[in-house]
Amino acid sequence: MRATRVIYVENDPALRGIMTSLLQDSDEIELILATGLAHEALDPEAIRLADVALIDLALGSGQMNGIDLGLAMRKSNDNIGIVIHSQYALDTVARSVPPAALIGWSTLPKSGDMFIEDVVRVLRETAKGFTSVPSSPSREDRSPLERMTMRQRAVMGMTAAGINPQEIARRLAISHDAVRQDLSAAYRVLVPDVQPEDDLRLRAVFTYLELTRQDDAEDGL
Amino acid sequence: MRATRVIYVENDPALRGIMTSLLQDSDEIELILATGLAHEALDPEAIRLADVALIDLALGSGQMNGIDLGLAMRKSNDNIGIVIHSQYALDTVARSVPPAALIGWSTLPKSGDMFIEDVVRVLRETAKGFTSVPSSPSREDRSPLERMTMRQRAVMGMTAAGINPQEIARRLAISHDAVRQDLSAAYRVLVPDVQPEDDLRLRAVFTYLELTRQDDAEDGL
DNA sequence: CAATCTCCCTCACATATGTGAACGCCGTCC
DNA sequence: GGACGGCGTTCACATATGTGAGGGAGATTG
């Protein structure tokens, strides 16, 4: 089995140095390019040779982000694997990359206790076309609050404060009908399984308060 | 007026037998459960149906006392009346029951010359929410909760639990119209100064929860 | 560009809600 | 006894509420 050829793009020189030497020590990896500059990583020749690119998500000001860089590299090599390396916000990958182009994309958290073996494994599997992007808040499994629009949240918030729909309409400068539509939509999200004995508005307010209270608690962490 | 539904808990089989037959003879009383065992009296279904419980204070060794049993029954039915029956130490009721939970509690001395009519009267009044323990608040300065009928509290309690009026009507076996009247009356007490921007039902529920939560806090004192 | 999506808006309609009015039923108080 | 007050019940009626249907603007995809 030949070594997996890797392009490595990392903004931070210290981290780049460490990872570079670790990758060079591995005989499953052939590091063909390591750089901190996006435009250096866009060398078509290198990209065509590479099996996979390990790219920092935040490449610093004045440079494109790692996702855009990965997409750009795909133009020179349809089948290059892209591993996005970041400390946080790895779910932006799932949101930013068109689903059809997502084959062969992975994310790799920058954690303090990472092992080079794991990095190597992710690189090799992504090079083979495996996709492991964290199931991001897409569609079904977003939290109820995330599944509501800004204005639906505003309307629910005011309702939960005991303000009636007409006053909400006045304060938000929208029609009474619009408020009721927002409420209705919010109910669907907050009370997905309405029981015949439920007081819909109260149930919705209770779940809403529960959810926002939980958020407050998380703010403190 | 329909018969007052009673749960009777008395340790002493002899007394229980006599009282049971006396209560059964009264057509103002419907005895739905008579037992000497606290755990039998904790049947949630019976408690929910009952208007009032007549409970011996000293239920014998190995059982909780009548006050604790009464408090426990309140967990299945917030608004059940509790009449504590005892030969002595009736003032422990006032000391043991949190003041705000004391609505609808009465004491009944076990005297040799008691008339069944008196028992019936105490049961019926306690069922209606009347409180007759040593320190009963005067009519003038009653808390909002005390200014509500027992049934209004029941209706508000269920509303605050997110149950809609038709289901409340079904569970309390009263008409939908009656529920709405009770709600309306409760709103007047709980939200004395309605602002034009208020959502009346939500405001009332919030004050109600506030008031009953205060009761919970006093439990810890 | 056309096809979708998403959000927002309006309209219509079936119910639900809040409340005044009026009556019946007890108890209480002269 | 009669007047009275509180509670429960029912009725009527003006609004409020919840939701389906459908249309429009703007962004995204193919």
Care to describe what's here?
- The structure is a homodimer of 221-residue chains.
- Mean pLDDT of chain A is 81; it is low at 135-139.
- With 221 residues, chain A is an alpha/beta fold.
- Chain A folds into 2 domains: 4-138, Rossmann fold; 142-214, Arc Repressor Mutant, subunit A (Orthogonal Bundle), CATH 1.10.10.
- Chain A starts with a strand and ends with a helix.
- Chain A has helices at 13-25, 38-41, 44-49, 66-76, 91-96, 116-127, 150-160, 165-172, 176-190, 200-219; strands spanning 4-9, 29-35, 52-56, 81-86, 105-109.
- In chain A, strands 2-1-3-4-5 form a 5-stranded parallel β-sheet, with helices on both faces.
- In chain A, α1 links the parallel β1 (4-9) and β2 (29-35).
- The A-B interface holds A 159-160, 162-167, 196-203, 205-206 and B 159-160, 162-167, 196-203, 205-206.
- The structure holds a DNA duplex (30 and 30 nucleotides).
